[in-house]
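Input record (Table S2, row 688):
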Amino acid sequence: TENHLRHMESLATLPSGARKIPQLNAMILGEAMASEENDLVYPSEEFSLQAHVPRPAKYLEMYKRSVEDPAGFWSDIASEFYWEQKWGQQVYSENLDVRKGTVNIEWFKGGITNICYNCLDRNVESGNGDKVALYWEGNDPGFDGSLTYKQLLAQVCQLANYLKDVGVKKGDAVVIYLPMLMELPIAMLACARIGAVHSVVFAGFSAESLAQRIMDCKPKVVLTSNAVRRGAKVIGLKDIVDAALLESAKNGASVDICLTYENKSAMTRESTNWKERRDIWWQDVVPKYPATCDVEWVDAEDPLFLLYTSGSTGKPKGVLHTTGGYMVYTGTTFKYAFDYKPSDVYWCTADCGWITGHSYVTYGPLLNGATCLAPTYPAAGRCWEIVDKYKVTIFYTAPTLVRSLMRAGDEYVTRYSRKSLRVLGSVGEPINPSAWRWFFNVVGESRCPISDTWWQTETGGFMITPLPGAWPQKPGSATYPFFGVQPVIVDEKGNEIEGECSGYLCIKHSWPSAFRTLYGDHERYETTYFKPFPGYYFTGDGCSRDNDGYYWLTGRVDDVINVSGHRIGTAEVESALVSHPQCAEAAVVGVEHEVKGQGIYVFVTLVEGVPCTEELRKSLIQTVRSQIGAFAAPDKIHWAPGLPKTRSGKIMRRILRKIASRQLGELGDTSTLADPSVVDQLIALADV
Ligand code: WTA
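Output record (WTA complex):
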């Protein structure tokens, strides 16, 4: 912290607008620019002057207070939200040190509030009821719609009343398996309104993955839709849910009600499979309920939602977030990291099935009374048409989308005006400097700062992020920590390293939206996140810090791979593969992929005597698709007569990663392998 403050102070003396990067056209971008990754890109003076945080000195002043007096800093900010009753004496309490006992984090305990009330009622009451809360844009041009704050509140209340009527109570889990229709944020908010704990499962997950989550959190009610269209394809979501419910019922988790939204543009009622009594059409019941519904006031530490995410081992983990701290933190980070103003139109391309859709499609923006755009499944090529149609001012997306648009060519961008844009954002994986520059120069015409936000499902909100206008950016760096966040870089032994360095990224002290536990498994919470480096929260990411104190995230250091910004556990993919009757063993590694960031590369050892055929390759890929979801489908299957193992039987992934990326000259020491000849066999089969 000391060091960081010193670095920022030296930056604080740089005159804003002193240097600007020249306008470049896409022709000379690309790798030639990557060498200039230490370039400072200054915001324009015009932008800085109107920003919430106009200069480094202002950030420094606020940051300093946030770490020296977290209680004072955060209680001032929390007071801007509505509390039915203020929190108790202690603003927060924490123990992040496993050596001192159970890990425990609490913020605003004793404070009574409701996040749905803060998102909707508060905005309606303050005179913004007729402002558009959500714009919705369908699969095809011409299918669109919008809801004002008043209308959204009415719809949320109707669903909340229905849920109460069928017996959902405070603390009960509700699983939501919906595509990006307005009904998805409506469902989340309705749960929050009555104190139910939502668990959204991304509608690209398979029946097995859905069943696994249902069996873990045992909801009474599942909310879904009969189908969704993705491009020309129709996906029968209800069939997936049916299969999941069958599976979970067999394992003692039976669901009473499956409320199904009829998505007419994808599938008719007649062709939807139906189980009488359990299955109910949303449109038949919900509109009959009153459009007002009393709020269930909850404690700041009452759970708000569960969201399952992949880890390096075992089954997915149910990350649990509570109400008060999450509300204060997501609302505040949204405001500062995007320099949000009431006149903005904000578009985040994430699906509510992931954390980004929770914190920065639903809660963060609505807490600020923002107008949000949530398209169902726009083809990438329609991006800029949509930006112009809605006059989008803040556009938040993932590097994988930036790279695929970049490949398509500038003309797809420049044929649209995009003049409404003023802030761009990136999330999900490190953005490579060449993609950063293209995004900045071509999409934003060198006028829009890019908020490269680093954070995680576990952190609930942005942790390291630029504050647009506050300081110069470096393409590819997430810059500085948000208020109250104290990142540290540690070495293998867990010692903090100062100044310019590389190592493991940890966080010292809690922040309001930190996850509180893994549902039903506090021990795993401690083991995974707090035991590796005692005293700190371990992020699982590698990171370096440069001479100016800028942070550069370098990717996961555990066995998690990041495919198009989606976290996938190698262990999950391996366990899907070995369930295939002809697969004896599998090892999965991530490998660089031009568009997706990382691709999934698998080494498969077949059962003795089974020949490697194209058909088998397809069938293995299909197994992963049906057990996890299409987004986890392997990119490459490498036949492996044997895997490189130590004498104690541990697979040496380091060697597999090198083989996968064809860095054959860098295999390192293979003499400790039980059978060094497997390496040559693998190399020989690399392109089979
Ligand atoms: C990666 C998504 C670099 C990182 C919000 C992290 C990033 C994981 C960035 C969390 C970024 C996310 N720069 N890496 N701006 N944002 N990551 O839980 O490896 O789906 O640990 O949360 O994504 O993924 P998750």
